[in-house]
Amino acid sequence: MRTAALLCVCAALTITASAQAKEPAPGAPGAIHVWAPADKHGFGTAEGVDSKAWFTLRQGSLSEVYYPDLSTPAFRGLQFAVSDGKGLLQRETVDDDPRHIEPLEAGVTSEVQPVPGSLEFRQVTQGTGWRLTKTWITDPTRATVLAKVRFESLTGKPMRLYVLADPAPGNDGNDDVGISPDELLVGYDDVAASAVAAKPAFERATSGYRGTESDPWHDLRDGQLSNYDAVAPGNVVQGALTGITGEQGSQTMTLAIGFGANVAAARTAATQSLATGLQPPRPRSRPAGWSTATRSRTRPRASRETRTSSASMTSRCWCWPPPRTRPTAARRSPRRTWRGSGAR
Ligand SMILES: [Ca+2]
Ligand SMILES: [Ca+2]
Q: At residue 93, what are phi and psi to the nearest 5 degrees?
């Protein structure tokens, strides 16, 4: 543990020293961390055993990601916010009272659909004058969650698209540090790290503390994103301005959320996954029995969908591979953070 912590600190210092220094974010440690509500609409994993990341989806956003195993949530969530630069500011999901299941921002609609014959989920969110189509999948060879993002301005005018990320490495969101080397969103503690990268790259990135003036969601209300590093341990939340505007020719982006035991490993996972791109395995490469297993699962009726969609998606993920090839999946479940209030 001490060796891992030392490596983590050394890697972070090296990266921080090489990056442009940012002003320390005010407000540490921020609001007490709690996990997201249990209203899951999707559960994603990869075929095979090389990827050590599992993700969940709420109606309009990504929620917990588990790394390096199913008993360890390491990322609380990621959603997008949109601004027209003229007073409109909308995010996808209302955060974050875990006692309520009220996921969407006023004026926003969203749905999650599994992509037939694959482990992808397509999540379409529409707000005032914009639409986001996100296709989520786990990199089968790395601890990375990938999203293919299509952002459309329905007014034809340029808009600003922001990423709002909430790292919580090591199943504890109260002891983290947030930095932005090369405008990546890096969060870490003494046991694990996450790195959010994009292609095209983020144009601006900041880290702050939840519920304070450096929280990017609060920060954006004046129309500008600050430029902080959250260097004191706390409940870190992060924000980034993407490089797409929603106009024709500026609508697509790939997002990678990489994980590792330290900053360098998480950053490597994210950047290498971005370089590889979103390439789900072809059907012929799947284990025998996969297609039969997925076809046997039916979606719940609409009236029961909210209550049962999580269970349906989860069982879809668990049915393959069999226990002998993925013992972790067979013996553990992510329910630790889904019980009761969602608090740790
Ligand atoms: Ca932590
Ligand atoms: Ca956090």
A: -125, 135
Give pLDDT tens digits for 86-100: 999 999 988 666 566
Cα–Cα nearest to 337, from 111, 3, 62, 37 = 37
* Contact present, 248 and 176 (Cβ < 8 Å): no
Distance (Å, rounded) from C-alpha 301 to C-alpha 12? 49
Ligand nearest to the CA of 233: 1
The closest ligand to the CA of 185 turns out to be 2
Nearest one of 210, 209, 170 to 193, comparing CA atoms:
170
pTM of the model: 0.81
Ligand that lies nearest to the alpha carbon of residue 191, given by its number in the listed order = 1
Residue 334 pLDDT level (bands cut at 50, 70, 90): low
The domain defined by 2-286 folds into Beta-galactosidase; Chain A, domain 5 (2.70.98)
CA separation for the pair 192, 143 (Å, rounded): 12
Tell me how far the alpha carbon of residue 248 lies from the centroid of ligand 2, in angstroms: 34
User: How far apart are the CA of 8 and the centre of ligand 1, in A?
Assistant: 13
Proximal ligand: closest to the CA of 167: 2
**Interval between CA 137 and ligand 1 midpoint (Å):** 24
Q: Which ligand is nearest to the CA of 32?
A: 2
How far away, in angstroms, is 231 Cα from ligand 1 center?
Answer: 13
Give the angle subtended at the CA of 314 by the CAs of 308 and 319, to the nearest 5°: 125
What is the distance between the alpha carbons of residues 280 and 138, in angstroms, rounded to a whole number? 9
Cβ(240)–Cβ(162) below 8 Å = yes
